[in-house]
């Protein structure tokens, strides 16, 4: 028997303490390590990235001692405070970042870019700096700048953490000097963007999307009449959130993205009826956050309606946020494949 709930009826609340305690790798990356990463032998940059991150991990916390006086007047480390993994979708950047987090001593934080900006919104900038300045390592996954405010915010945050001796590590699909391109007048914020770039040594990770490497094409959307049979075959004895897609989209507008992780608590799978192409940019960007949280929690998807490669308009897929949308399509496709592992009897 499948227990059915609806995401569209959930309105989770998240305290500041819960936000801070949530800065660790998701269950999907809860047990990963450098040893469990499988570099593609055709892409030598992948093995090189493993070696670079292992060396970086060895330096985390190495400069401890000496207290505030040393931080203020001691000799500055000759190396940059951060390491930045640049590469395409599905080459294992998050796996490598989580492996670094597991290998490094604490206290430490691991979260997505949007989770850090949400933390600042919940705590205030100064309290966020105070909270994270005592950490040895701050890992930032999916580093992207969506607007000028985020550019200035993250520039200040990274600079102040680096000055406090915190090691930084980030992943992105965009080189740090190119963050913001196509989203806003990046030239007007070049100083802040350059401050960000100056914090990191860039490590390139090449390769093809492992989520589709050697795998069949994404399953075609189901018909509405097929959803319950597939739901029973895939999720018998589990809890499923079943929603009309349009209702879910409307509900997300009233739930802050910092709460999307908790929105999915206790959900083993999701079922969406009548998926349709999203035509509004703000709605699409919110949905990208949900897609990321679903992927973090490894929540399989069953869906009817349009296929996920038609979830965003062609204009969006070729616009300033195209990398976010391609990542979302890649991840949703992988989860849709997981959702049809069992054929109905």
Strand tally is 9
CATH class of the largest domain: Alpha Beta
Number of domains: 2
Strand content: 5-15%
Q: How can the largest sheet be summarized?
A: 5 strands, parallel
Mean pLDDT: 83
Structural class based on helices, strands and sheet pairing: alpha/beta
Order of helices and strands: EHHHEHEHHEHEHEHEHHEHEHH
- Taking pLDDT < 50 over at least 5 consecutive residues as the criterion, the unreliable ranges are 65-78, 179-189
Oligomer: single chain
- Relevant CATH superfamily of the largest domain: P-loop containing nucleotide triphosphate hydrolases
Q: Using the coordinates shown, work out and report the CATH topology of the largest domain.
A: Rossmann fold
Distance between the termini: 14 Å
* Bulk shape: globular
The CATH architecture classification of the largest domain is 3-Layer(aba) Sandwich
Strand order of the largest sheet: 3-4-5-2-6
Notes on the protein architecture:
The protein has 345 residues and is an alpha/beta fold. It folds into two domains: 3-13 and 215-339, Rossmann fold; 41-207, Rossmann fold (3-Layer(aba) Sandwich). 41% of the residues lie in helices and 14% in strands. The chain is built from 14 helices and nine strands. The strands form two sheets. A five-stranded parallel beta sheet has the order 3-4-5-2-6, with helices on both faces. Helix 12 (281-296) links the parallel strand 8 and strand 9. Helix 2 (44-59) packs parallel to helix 4 and helix 5 (113-123) crosses helix 6 (125-132). The model is unreliable at 65-78 and 179-189 (pLDDT under 50).
């Amino acid at each position: 028997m499948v227990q059915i709930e609806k995401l569209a009826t959930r309105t989770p609340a998240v305290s500041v303490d819960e936000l801070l305690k949530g800065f660790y790798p998701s269950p999907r990356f809860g047990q990963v390590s450098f040893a469990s990463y499988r570099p593609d032998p055709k892409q030598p940059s992948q093995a090189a990235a493993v070696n670079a991150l292992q060396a970086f991990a060895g330096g985390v916390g190495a400069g401890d001692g000496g207290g505030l006086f040393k931080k203020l007047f001691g000799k500055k480390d000759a190396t940059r405070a951060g390491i930045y993994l640049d590469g395409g979708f599905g080459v294992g950047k998050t796996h490598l970042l989580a492996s670094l987090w597991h290998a490094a001593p604490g206290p430490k934080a691991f979260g997505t870019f949007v989770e850090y900006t949400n933390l600042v919104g919940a705590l205030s900038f100064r309290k966020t700096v105070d909270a994270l300045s005592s950490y040895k390592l701050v890992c930032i996954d999916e580093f992207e700048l969506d607007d000028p405010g985020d550019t200035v915010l993250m520039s200040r945050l990274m600079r102040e953490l680096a000055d406090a001796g915190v090691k930084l590590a980030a992943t992105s699909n965009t080189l740090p000097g190119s963050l913001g391109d196509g989203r806003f007048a990046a030239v007007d914020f070049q100083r802040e963007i350059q401050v960000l770039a100056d914090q990191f040594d860039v490590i390139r990770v090449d390769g093809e999307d492992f989520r589709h490497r050697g795998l069949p094409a994404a399953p075609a959307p189901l018909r509405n009449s097929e959803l319950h049979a597939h739901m029973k075959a895939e999720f018998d004895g589990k809890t499923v959130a079943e929603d009309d897609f349009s209702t879910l989209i409307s509900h997300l507008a009233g739930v802050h993205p910092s709460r999307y992780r908790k929105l999915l608590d206790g959900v083993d799978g999701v079922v969406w009826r009548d998926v349709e192409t999203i035509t509004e940019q703000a709605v699409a960007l919110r949905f990208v956050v949900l897609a990321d949280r679903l992927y973090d929690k490894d929540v399989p998807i069953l869906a009817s309606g349009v296929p996920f490669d038609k979830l965003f308009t062609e204009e969006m897929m070729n616009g300033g946020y195209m990398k976010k949308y391609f990542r979302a399509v890649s991840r949703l496709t992988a989860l849709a494949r997981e959702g049809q592992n069992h054929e109905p009897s």
